[in-house]
Design goal:
Helix content: under 10%
Order of helices and strands: EEEEHEEE
Number of strands: 7
Structural class: mainly beta
Strand order of the largest sheet: 2-1-5-6-7-4-3
Largest sheet: 7 strands, antiparallel
Number of helices: 1
Radius of gyration: 12 Å
């Protein structure tokens, strides 16, 4: 995905560093300053994703990994 495209997570628009879609998985690289804002602790760990006003479905964060650059984190989400 090009850096200029936006992704909407639970109604919040974000501009990920990178975004990769696989069959049932999505990998999103975000700046650390955006991470807590986009994926806060929730009692129900599902997040609604959409792009270009098209609903992509509900996803659950299955892994969050801080990258070695110290500035970004990689989130792996699985379709629910």
């Amino acid at each position: 995905m090009e850096g200029s495209k936006l992704l909407e997570v639970d109604g919040t628009e974000i501009q990920p560093i990178s975004l990769r879609f696989y069959e049932e998985l999505v990998e999103i690289e975000l700046n650390n300053c955006d991470s807590n804002h986009v994926f806060p602790q929730k009692s129900v760990p599902r997040h609604a994703l959409s792009q270009n006003n098209v609903a992509l479905g509900y996803f659950k964060v299955t892994r969050a990994k801080a990258l070695s650059n110290g500035k970004t984190s990689l989130f792996t989400l699985h379709r629910q």
